[in-house]
């Protein structure tokens, strides 16, 4: 594990045991073997931490390595995932929006619309799904 950490620019730990303290996965010696400025993220910091020297709710430097021990990672991921999904939907709709007619252009000739369209006129028109359902008994 020390050799793997020494080669890495970033290490993310996630080992948690519910009802018990998190196991120590990354030791101070492993951090010392890493390149200065490397980053280690400790997702288990709230239950004792996988990384020696990580502190709940803090970003610290241990042996020249940035150790991130932010609280409530699960809550942060949901927010970021929602933002990314909203951004993807916005740009999809923007690509399909006909500014002159002020409406969505779902014409099948447009590559984005054709790949996003699943059904039309009561049939499956998406080529990927057509192959899947054709192979399904």
Describe the structure.
With 137 residues, this protein is α/β, with parallel strands linked by helices. It has two domains: 2-71, Rossmann fold (3-Layer(aba) Sandwich); 83-135, no CATH class. Helices cover 37% and strands 19% of the residues. The protein has helices at 2-7, 28-33, 73-96, 111-116, 127-135; strands at 10-13, 39-42, 58-62, 65-69, 97-98, 103-104, 119-120, 123-124. The strands form three sheets. Strands 1-2-4-3 form a four-stranded mixed sheet. The chain has a two-stranded antiparallel sheet with strand order 5-6. Strands 7-8 form a two-stranded antiparallel ribbon. The chain is elongated, with a radius of gyration of 24 Å. It starts with a helix and ends with a helix.
Helix content: 25-40%
**Beta-strand content:** 15-25%
Radius of gyration: 24 Å
Strand order of the largest sheet: 1-2-4-3
Q: Runs with pLDDT <50, length 5+?
A: none
Overall CATH architecture of the largest domain:
3-Layer(aba) Sandwich
Helix/strand/pairing category: alpha/beta
CATH class of the largest domain: Alpha Beta
| Count of folded domains | 2
CA(first)-CA(last) distance: 48 Å
Compose a concise summary of this entry.
Helix content is 37%, strand content 19%. With 137 residues, the chain is of the alpha/beta class. The protein has two domains: 2-71, 3-Layer(aba) Sandwich (Rossmann fold), CATH 3.40.50.720; 83-135, no CATH class.
